[in-house]
Amino acid sequence: MASQPSPRRLRMGVDVGGTNTDGVILDPSLASSSPSRGILAHIKTATTPNPSAGIMTAITSMFTQLEATHAADIRPEDAIASVTIGTTHFVNAVIERDPSRLSRVAVLRLSGPFSKHVPPCVDWPDDMRSLILGCHARVKGGLEVDGSLISDIDESEIVEQCKEIRKRGGIRAVVINGVFSPIDTVYKQEERAAEIVRRELGGQGEVDVVCSKEVANLGFLERENAAVLNASILRFARRTIREFRQAVGRLGLKGVPVFITQNDGTILKGEKAAELPIKTFSSGPTNSMRGAAFLVQGQKKDGKKEGHEQGEAMMVVDIGGTTTDVGLLLPNGFPRQQAAYSELAGVRMNFSCPDIKSIGLGGGSIVRKGKNGITIGPDSVGYRIDKEALLFGGSTLTTTDCTVLTNPDITSIGDASLVKDALTEEETQQFKAIVKTKIEKMIDNMKTSPEDLPAILVGGGAVIAPDELQGASRVLKPRWSEVANAIGAAIARVSAVVDTIKSTETKTEKQFLEEIKTDAIERTIAAGASPESVEVVEVEMLPLQYVENKTRFVVRAAGDFDFTRSYMSSDDDGQASSEEEASGEDLSEPQTVTDTNPKAATPSEVNVLTYTPNVFNRIWHISETDLTFISTGCYILGTGGGGSPYASMILLRQLLRSGASVRVVSPADVPDSAAVGCGCGAGSPTVSIEKLQGDEMMQAQTELYKALPSSDQNQNKATHMIALEIGGGNGLQGMTLGASSNMDIPCVDGDWMGRAYPTKWQTTPVVFNERSPIWSPIAVADGNGNVLVMPKAASDAAVENIIRAALSQMGSQVGAADPPVTGAEMKRWVVENTVSQAWRLGRAVARARAMNRLDEVAETIVEECGGGQKGAAKVLFKGKIVGVRRTLRMGHVYGECIIEGTDVTDDTTINDGRRTGGRRGGQGVDGEEKEDFTGKRIKIPFKNENIAAIRIPAEDGSDDKNKKLEKQEDVLAIVPDLISVIDAQSGEAVGTPEYRYGLLVIVIGIAASDKWTGSQRGIDLGGPKAFGFDHLKYEPLGRFVKPVSVIDEFDRSIE
């Protein structure tokens, strides 16, 4: 009887990189029992212009190895269960702006009256927008945060827009994006609209239709951006994946499923990856991390097994020829993900990507000798190392040369005699110290707790790393680490994510969580996982502020692929080919692109080091550069609250680009008889990222003046505008309302808070209490036809409470219009020059980036606020977030953030064997010694905004057990002084909704305006007592210094 073929059990992984294509064949059944880790064949070969050819070369080579070593018991064509490919092919098409691989896209928004001022791709680079965006339209549709309708879709509107799309010609894809579509499980607006578009414009062969909810989660603009990029590469992705399948099939692997790895370390079936190619963009680093963990899993150290069988987090250090990438593999076996947003080719998106830190250190990094010692990188000889390095007869000193020189045991790399005298003994010690310090710093920055973690070194350049590293419990250099990325592809799992918002009125959070976990598990099984292997690996619950009884749930489940399901192994290559051929399209033919979008001057084209604002006759004319600076500064002054100014900045920038003018004037120049109006947004930041502003701000202003007594309407009509709060998104509303395309009046350089506060009664007019109530009459509008006017109120607190109560019935987001005050009143109550202050803070961040001195950005911000000798601002702490908790009470998100002191800079230069900055202090911009925060901890309690920065014991966490009241002597700063948290890696502010484990931050304290601290009433309304910290008293951080006016400094007046 003829022998039966071996059962399919082997997995093949192939990773197609920019330089090399790596491959591996492994037997999972031998992974834990064999010294070989089940690896039966592996290969590293050069990537070819046609990646399919490189894949075939790699597979053929591995088959040859397999036949040479296992010919008796393995026939590759019968033994391979799956082929999983990781590729940079799709992301490269976007980065390279290749018109032959990118299609033009139309965008159809289901948003009703919202988002009208912020068109699609508004924040893209000009060339990308011109290349990809064909046309766009806004039609009825969209949901509120509670799942109710903004409006239902209108089929006739969509049909009409399809006619316009067809008239345009050349459009190959349509994106449907609805407000709050990711939580739309009832009305299915995007799906219904997509059916109409397919019916009118044709199916896959003619026009692709993409629903944004299938691509990314909450965040209207960012989800739309991701969906548009995804739609643009769909045709190219289908062709590429078909070629991958055909290459595999030509090698005798007919019927073997082909998978593509995605960003989070899991797999997509080939046809699904062809629908969602954007989810593969960052899969390379993830593959490396998971492959590295696989290589050490099960190894014994001191009697214990390594790896994720023990539920242990692990650091993966991937050292290539040019860069070192470090990522954290969590105990659940998946890499830690980035914060809410990521950026690719200048496009901001919100799909999941691994959190990877990179530095210019690799095996080919160039080593230079100078008067102050040696330097390493960031430039590298890269793939030319075998020609240019000294070891190979070249003339460039590299890290590999120096490593061989310092380690005589390395005999397999080049000719060691050629580097014999390359470094002196002192330089040798400097080299070893720099390499060690750079890697240690990255490890320290990525850790989320003080405990040491195992560090796995992989990549071709791993030889340059030492065997011991501070912060690493052990350093592992496993065999086969050079193909860790291909191994990661071979072992990738299946996953699904549920991101939704639920009302907790009828069920508890715990009950909803169990339901959502079940949903995530079912979705994972449906995606191809074996039911017995599926587990929940990630859970996050975020209560929504100002939205009653609403919580956002994010749950991820993962499992191993079920290779026993026959339908998963169907061969659909022929179908895919016929569909493309039926379209009659030559996908390799370059498209002709006409740039229909004129380029506007952008901040990136301006020299921020020499830029001066346009101030003429004491009127400041706002430019895009000014706006960028102000927006950055507003978020810093938001003290964690106020919501991100990003969407408001984009809206105002569009007004400027459309020809509108925005003017800012000094409070001192406003006549006493002037009428100074105010407008602001109120609601949940979660709503504002989905339901982009429509006309509600202007509608509220119009309704307010209608409500004023007829005799007062003209007399009281605003002649100037002022921001309610400079902190967060509201900091830009005074300029937006005053723009020439809206009310056409100047904005005052000041506001009513000097920061952000959670309630309307925490404003300086209420502090002065010259008349009460100050905030009525008031009008609010939701932008969808609903208006609330309060002609009278008993108190300003009543105004706050009634508006908050109405919010949930008005979509949890409204525009508000406050009654004008006189110019004389404004001068007495205003916190002066806060627009100027925001501008200066934003400029400080921009300059630090331009000069690559983000390590000094905190000190520069302090100087701009009158720090240094004046003591008006100071750096309170530097460290890493190691704990966050949140709870919702009365519409406000309360919580606290725990920060552990650590080095957050990237200054690792060695002079005379000593570090010049970073972990152990150093000098600031003023030459003073920096404080060393290592080993210390603080907590920041918050109520939407940060309340205080308080020292806590090093072992203290965020648990309530044995919790003690804070002591006065431990307070570093407290309200009304400003406590701002900034990202140490970017200089940008970090809002309380963005606090997350592992984020490197700097905490800055800024003295509050004397409008708050000059009276006991101000301290009572804006200080500790107002936030429930009755046991603490306000002690000033320093002496307040009034911000320097941009108008006073840069005015070019004509006498």
From TrEMBL:
Gene Ontology MF terms: hydrolase activity
Domain Hydantoinase/oxoprolinase N-terminal, residue spans: 11-200
Residue ranges with Polar residues bias: 590-601
Biased composition (Acidic residues): 570-588
Region annotation Disordered: where it falls in the sequence: 568-601, 909-930
Gene3D superfamilies, sorted: CV3147-like, CV3147-like domain
Superkingdom of origin organism: Eukaryota
Domain (Hydantoinase A/oxoprolinase): residue spans on this chain: 223-452
Family annotation (InterPro entries): ATPase_NBD (IPR043129), Hydant_A_N (IPR008040), Hydantoinase_A (IPR002821), Oxoprolinase-like (IPR045079), S-Me-THD-like_C (IPR048350), S-Me-THD_C_sf (IPR024071), S-Me-THD_N (IPR010318), S-Me-THD_N_sf (IPR027479)
Domain (S-Me-THD N-terminal) ranges: 625-791
Pfam families: Hydant_A_N (PF05378), Hydantoinase_A (PF01968), S-Me-THD_C (PF20906), S-Me-THD_N (PF06032)
Domain S-Me-THD-like C-terminal: residue ranges: 795-1037
Entries under SUPFAM superfamilies matching the protein: Actin-like ATPase domain (SSF53067), CV3147-like (SSF160991)
Cited PANTHER family: 5-OXOPROLINASE RELATED, HYDANTOINASE_OXOPROLINASE
Protein name: Hydantoinase
Originating species: Neurospora hispaniola
Lineage per the UniProt record: Eukaryota, Fungi, Dikarya, Ascomycota, Pezizomycotina
